[in-house]
Amino acid sequence: MTFNPLLLWYIPLLPFAGFLINGTLGRRLPRPAVTVIALLATGLPASIVLMLWRRMTESGTLSISSTIGQWIHVTGFHVDFTFSVDHLTMIMLAVVTGVGFLIHLYSAGYMAHEDGYWRFFAYLNLFMFFMLVLVLAANFLLLFVGWEGVGLASYLLIGFYFKKDSAANAGKKAFIVNRIGDFGFLLAMFLIILHYGSLSFDQVFAAIGASDVHGGFLTAIALLLVVGATGKSAQIPLYIWLPDAMEGPTPVSALIHAATMVTAGIYMVARCHTLFDRSPYALAVVAVIGAATAIMAACIGMVQHDIKRVLAYSTISQLGYMFLACGVAAYSAAIFHLVTHAFFKALLFLAAGSVIHALSGEQDMRHMGGLWKKIPWTSGTMLVGVLAIAGIPPFAGFFSKDEILYRTFADTDNPIAKLLWLVGLITAGMTSFYMFRLWYKTFWGDRRFDEHAALQDHGATVHAKATSTLVMEAEHDDAQAAHPHGVHESPAIMLLPLVVLALLSVVGGWVGVPTAMHGSNEFERFLEPVFQSAGSLEAVSAAAHESHGLEIGLACVSVATALIGWFFAWLFYAKKPGAAAAIAAKANPLYNLVANKFYVDEIYNAVFVTGLLFATRVLLKGFDQIGIDGSTKFVGWMAMNLSDDTRRMQSGNIRSYAGWLALGAAVVMAVMIFGRGIWVH
Amino acid sequence: MDHSILSLIVLTPLVGALVLALLPDKGKTMQWGALIVTLLTFLFTLHLPFRYQDGLPAGSFQFVQDSSWIPNPAIRYHVGVDALGMWLVVLTGFLAPLGVLASWTKIDSRKKTFYVLFLLQQVAMLGLFVALDLIIYYAFWEMTLVPMTILIATFGRTKDRRKAAIKYFVYAFVPSALLLVGMLWLYFKTGTFQLPDLAKAAAEHHISGNGPALWLCSLAFLVAFAVKVPIFPLHGWLKDAICEAPTAAVMVLAGKTGLYSILRFSFAIFPEQSHRVAPLMIALGAIGIVFGSLIAITRKDMKELAAYSTLGHLSFVTLGIFTFTISGLDGGIYQILNHGISGGALFLLLGFLYERYGTYDMRDLGGLAAQLPWMVTLYVVTTLSLIGLPMLNSFVGEFLILSGSMQANNPHHILWTVMATTGVILSAGYMLLMIQRVFYGSLGVVSERTTPHDLNFREHVAMWPLVALMLLMGVASPYWMKTLDANGVSMATVPSPVLPVVATKSPLTPSFVDPELKAGALHEKATPAPEGRRY
User: Fold this and answer.
1) Per-residue confidence at A458, pLDDT binned at 50, 70, 90?
2) Given A117, A133, A158, which residue is the final one in a domain?
3) Closest-CA residue of chain B to A74
4) What is the span of the domain harbouring residue A384?
5) Is the confidence at residue A469, as pLDDT, over 80?
6) Inter-residue contact B171 to B227 (CB < 8 Å)
7) Is A192 part of any domain?
8) What pLDDT score was predicted for residue A610?
9) Does residue A672 sit within a domain?
10) For an engineered disulfide with B455, which of B30, B58, B394, B459 has Cβ 3.0 to 4.6 Å away?
């Protein structure tokens, strides 16, 4: 089967067309039309990706690229509009279009009662456009287009309920924090141009491969790229925007802040692996950032009450795992976890959205409980997601997380690899704990929600935290009236994506069963052409053959850890509810520290925001007013005084005139005699 | 070959101004008249890019008209453009009708004065971009000052308008006097006012062997231009002038003329001095970006915010052109055009908001997004363009500038690049803050009591060409760059080092000078005259 490379351009451009149509005309179109346009705009690219996939399985390998013109061209430097697809891109394309389409479908049900329906889908399509550009890009600058663009879409979608100050603030915060990351990314690109004169992946990586540079400026470039990645993928120190991003509608959290956009940093590091392989120092930094973020976010996640925030911290923590994997040069493991995480985290968010939908906007788990009988589909699919993320075999998360932990343990380049593994293991236990905590608190035990209130609130649905004065005005259309009131299961259009994602969360890991467990690790072999030059890969695979016993042993340890996490969750939240609160009360200072997210937001605010504004107000404004304006006024004042003095010279007094005349003559003579050189050369 | 198209472009608004001055100020005569004249001018300017020839040798001008005017001193009517001048002429022509549309209802008294001055301003700017004779150039340069000053003084927003006008005038006028001295000194040394001749003489080190004098002269040029840009810290006039001036005037107030003049005259006539002063200018550029952006964050008044953001954006251009790298120069020149478009769009939108709400204070506004969907859409697009979102125009310019700055052969170039790059964070900061305060959240005091009406037809017509260009220039930059690149390449060439000064006879000898002075000028020993006998 032939594949026209130009079709690659339709993959992102179709969502863009959807954005343009819905963005300009959507206000006047009926809702079904908006839905159809948005779904087509994501469904058609998905089918193109499917065609690509078929062609790839037929020919066994895949490497397509297509250039349609130049974007920037100055003498000595140019950037083209080039897309290329290799195996890594293929996986990202499949995830983005597949999960993206499912979430679009879900949104059609979830957003049905919201005002600004067309706006929502326009932004969502815009996001798809930029995300697809990001993964298809064949050079740094085009990748940066997607990189900034998804940030923009994220800004617009987080601030979707723009009348709420918290949402507008969260959107702005996300954009600006991401810009800090972009600052690093930009500087990295400038250095790459300085040293290689090009931004094309092929050229730059070939040049790096051909040279024998290790460390040095490559470390600088790699670290700057890491700055970019920490911004986009919400790692220490720039993770602070992601929890706030939960102000956006839940499908947005599922698509952008869990499954796709936030994994862009991981993708970028994997894409630039040639560069990172040359800089052990940068890799070590990546690994440490990843491990530290994983455990820190897991700590905070254990004490959150808002169902979406638990998931947000869980996302940060899981992204930490992926960073850790990149840091030990196990790129395919990182991408594997990226894929399984996309499945189960999208599932968890969508299920959480379904819960919130059922409770008409309630997000606090303290006001949930006992929901499993009311919304069985949601609770069932969510349980699958919980099992997957907790790392219980044979669910997807087990295989990918285990791969990362094993690779970390087996890494010989990093002197603190064993410590990093231990951190990862502890995090796995915590993950299991907070996820089961979430499930028990939501679906198990006593009912703590007010069914009556839920019923009344339904008139004005706000899926984000309902602040009744600020709610968007809901449209009371027919669909609304037909909707069952009270706590209710979601409509089929929302359940279908849940079921599909639940299935994927079960079987998604089976493509990467390690050889130690009698699998063939197809996933890793699939990515081998991309990461071949990683060098360490063959070595690790070779080592893996010798240590099957070790790998299985480690797997048993991590399963045991996950079970311990589950046990405590069951003990505290199913068996003896209230025990957790008692413990929290006992360890009060510690609990407060964690519950307040280690006060990082407050510290950043005090140091950066307040500090900067204070400095600006006092120093710069002072300079502008006193220095610039003041000097202008001073000059004016001088001029006035001088002219005042000059005026006095015209006194009408002959003697004084004669005096001035003599003085002038003296000056002229002095110039003539001594100063000739000044004038004539 | 003699062309008359440039003269036609300059004369059209001049004739238009005369006609408007004679017509009665009734109904919408003035608006329509000005609109027709500006559209006609714009149409003529479009002739240039269609007929522009690529690939001519660096430093050559096209559409040249060169005829003698005054034999002594040798002032010629000499006009012509290269890619830089051409695109600035087109940009000026393009923005003028939008300026008229922006003033359509806002200016409702003394319309005749307004539109006549507005057209004269056009004449001055167009003339400035095409003049190749220093004296003609200087005449247009001074002419840009007068209508603008009167516009600010007459149509300013608050009672401080006269102060702002005087400040602007004095700031721009005083260095201009020095500029004139510099020009006369050049004439005295070379006997010509023609830019191509001067550039050639400069490249061959024939202007003067007197290093310090040449330095002083180059500074007289640079300072006069830098004030007009403005380059930090010469921006004292900017905030007041922008806050006071009516929208149509603000759109052409800052940036273009000063930056063009630096590129055209400072770089061509004083290549060595410009290279020597570059480290300082790069530093000022980087500082200006951070300074302007930081102050903008603290502003509550939208026009003040826009003024400081203008300083920040123009500092990007300063940084870029003084790197003397191809990327930096190309990006800098491109960014001049971008700033004209995106900055112009921002000022248009601010003007529209002011017409509706009568305030620029963000604290009084808020929650407008739900009331003015088109306004917020265009505002967000303009903001994204200004903060350099890829695929929109400014990104191309800023990216090239910063990457050029990283490549610059300049001490501490990494430091200045890093500092300048923080501008991308800060600009996002103040612009998004402004959007949030004006459009999001709950309704403000003023927006609550004003009946909202979204953009009307006229305003749509004014905005959409700008928005289209933002996208087009962001995606299809090679179309512009392929012509502009020649400028960048020729300016990025490092000047040949100073040769030992040899006494050379300039072929162009002015005839009015005193023979003795002339001898001095040509570096010959004057006939020795005993001191005593002379005096």
Assistant:
1) very low
2) A158
3) B485
4) 264-463+494-595
5) no
6) yes
7) no
8) 84
9) yes
10) B459
Give yes or no: residues A616 and A585 share one domain. no
Which of A141, A158, A175 is a domain's end point? Answer: A158
| A contact residues 123-162, partner B, Cβ 8 Å cutoff | 141, 144-145, 148-149, 152, 155, 159, 162
pLDDT band at A618 (very low <50, low <70, confident <90, very high): confident
Q: A449 and A585 share a domain? A: yes
DSSP class per residue in A422-468: HHHHHHHHHHHHHHHHHHHHHHSSS--S-HHHHHHHTTS--SS---G
State the Cα–Cα distance between residues B428 and B431, nearest whole angstrom. 5
Tell me the backbone φ, ψ of residue B27, rounded to 5 degrees: 55, -130
B233 lies within 8 A of chain A by CB:
yes
B32-36, B349-353, B490-494: segment of lowest average pLDDT: B490-494
Secondary structure (DSSP) of A65-113: EEEEEEEEEETTEEEEEEEEE-HHHHHHHHHHHHHHHHHHHHHHHHTTT
Helix (H, G, I), strand (E, B) or coil at A217: helix
pLDDT per residue over A169-217, tens digit each?
999 999 999 999 999 999 999 999 999 999 999 999 999 988 888 878 8
Total residues belonging to chain B: 535
pLDDT in tens, B328-352: 999 999 999 999 999 999 999 999 9
Residues A551 and A662 in one domain: no
What's the whole-model pTM score?
0.89
A125-130 average pLDDT score = 95
CB–CB of B400 and A168 under 8 A?
A: no
CA distance A649 to A644: 9
Half-sphere exposure of B139 (CA within 13 A, CB side): 13
Domain count, chain A: 3
A671 shares a domain with A574: no
Mean pLDDT of chain A: 85
| Minimum distance, in Å, between the CA of residue A18 and any CA atom of chain B | 17
Q: Which residue has the tokens 């935290």?
A: A465
Query: Is residue A3 over pLDDT 80?
Result: no
In a domain, A243, yes or no: no
Q: Which neighbouring-strand residues pair with B76?
A: B68
Residue A213 lies in a domain: no
Q: For residue range A256-295, what is the model confidence (pLDDT) as tens digits?
A: 988 899 999 999 999 999 999 989 999 999 999 999 999 9
Cβ neighbors of A550 (< 8 A, separation 6 or more) are A406, A409, A410
Cβ count near B124 (within 10 Å): 25
Same-domain check for residues A440 and A343: yes
- Judged by DSSP in three states, B62 sits in strand
Task: Tell if the CB–CB gap between B477 and A73 is shorter than 8 Å.
Answer: yes
A with B: how many residue pairs have Cβ under 8 Å apart? 147
Q: Contact A681/B523, CB-based, under 8 Å?
A: yes
Those residues whose C-beta lies under 8 Å from the C-beta of residue A540, and which sit 6 or more positions away, are: A330, A407, A410
Angle at the Cα of A84 (from A80 to A86), degrees rounded to 5? 155
Domain match, A531 and A659 both? no
The residues near A224 (Cβ < 8 Å, ≥ 6 apart) are A184, A185, A187, A188, A191
Q: How many CB atoms lie within 10 A of CB A589?
A: 7
A625/A373 Cα distance (integer angstroms): 68
pLDDT of res. A626: 78
CA distances from A581 to A245, A303, A575, A615 (A): 28, 10, 14, 43
Contacts of A631 in chain B (CB under 8 A): 236
CA distances from B376 to A157, B301, B446 (A): 15, 18, 17
What's the ipTM?
Answer: 0.88
Q: Name the residue among B413, B306, B289, B409 with its Cα closest to residue B351.
A: B306
Contact A94, A340 (CB under 8 A): no
H or E segment to which residue B66 belongs: strand B62-70
A532 and A646 part of one domain: no
